[in-house]
Design a protein that fits this description.
Length: 118
């Protein structure tokens, strides 16, 4: 199970920190990511972090502004979002992929809304 929190309304230039609390699987051995989807748009990968935080990738539009991190002891994924822009407005989803019994498992959270506006 993945449960996101931390979304809300923020002015351009502001900051938010999203959290995703995970349960029911081996969080420490799982790839984790944040995706987002705005109305009428496709879902896009915002940031991804491998197990143990070994490596991260970011969408070009958020590089230098967003930081993905994980706390394996707390089974929690974070997304620190700074210098927010109106085009960052979207519903943000927590995502995981891991292997279990030689089969790939994918789960999504329910999402948290981020709105950047005056």
């Amino acid at each position: 199970q993945l449960v996101e929190s931390g979304g809300g309304l923020v002015q351009p230039g502001g900051s938010l920190r999203l959290s995703c609390r995970a349960s029911g699987f081996n969080f420490g051995r799982s790839l984790m990511a944040w995706w987002r989807q705005d109305l009428g748009q496709g879902r896009e990968l915002v940031a991804q972090i491998t197990k143990g935080g070994e490596s991260t990738i970011y969408h070009d539009s958020v590089k230098g502004r967003f930081t993905i991190s994980r706390d394996d002891a707390e089974h929690t994924l974070y997304l620190q979002m700074n210098s927010l822009k109106p085009e960052d407005t979207a519903r943000y989803y927590c995502y995981t992929f891991y292997m279990e019994n030689d089969r790939g498992e994918v789960y999504w959270g329910q999402g948290t809304q981020v709105t950047v506006s005056l």
